Amino acid sequence: MDLQQRINAFSKLGDFLSQFSTKGIQKNETVEANDLFFDGFKHQIKLAKEHNGWFTENNILYSLESWSNALQADHITKWTHTYNFKDISPKTIAIIMAGNIPLVGFHDFLSVLITGHKVLVKQSSNDKHLLPFLTKYLEIVAPAFKGNITFTEDKLDNFDAVIATGSNNTARYFEYYFKDQPSIIRKNRNSVAILTGNETKAQLEALSEDIFRYYGLGCRNVSKLFVPKNYNFDDFFNAVYKWHPIIHEAKYANNYDYNKAVYLMSEFDMLENGFLMVKEDQSYASPIATLFYETYDNDSGLKQKLIEDSEKIQCVVAAGLLEDEIAFGKTQQPQLWDYADDVDTVEFLLKI
């Protein structure tokens, strides 16, 4: 396949996914190969939900809706047009995927195939139902993909480069194990938001999406706030209250109760509203149902700190402070050219 054919194939996948959104699941008779796959994918969503308690139907559909929006032909064309795809010698690229949120490894999968390489996928056991089924759809609408996509649960073998995502501990193992191959190794990162005290209610409500979507399990979820000294959290708590039903979901509630008990027994100072705890802490990775915060004196000092800690940070949510900031409510809606860890995956793949 040439590049345009690959773009067309993923655009058809985007059309297929458009039937599955947070507004509901609605069959579209014009979608190619729909009779073969629509009901089957509904079943895969059910299996994914049953297999992983963090994968609620709403969160799965949110992910599918986001990918449907991204996989529009004009978006893929805009993403790819700045690269030179000529003279590509197809290689086999291994991908070790995380499983913290639904289809979290899809961008790497897409990047490998859109560049004309073959992909060898090792999925997380937490997220193993959705992608293999979508691969079958791709192979039907674009038969040339057959033989270029392999899933394995065994030890990785016979590959030319690797993209691996894991914790800081597993990253050290990856770096040693794959030291002789070209690689992208991703470690833990978290996202932050900068508040000034002048935010509108709409901005703070949008921020709640960045905090609570996927229960805060993604690297693009805001896990820490930077606030001015003596910041009043009342407006913040009022704005995020629309998420209060989350406390009725068992896995989240269990984490809330556990962490609250730990903080109380340790006599830590914190604020809480019945479903979220806010605690002053210099760390970036906060536990589920907890949001850390840190105060700042001035913009210049804060900007310097963010530069120094850049390898720990995935996204910075702010309004008019930084060139590469993300708007409130938009962390879980990245564009195709928004690369994890600011490492250009396509450029890496084109140079192998």
From TrEMBL:
It comes from the Bacteria. Keywords: NADP. GO terms for molecular function: acyl-CoA dehydrogenase activity. One of its GO terms (biological process) is bioluminescence. This is Acyl-CoA reductase. It comes from Winogradskyella flava.
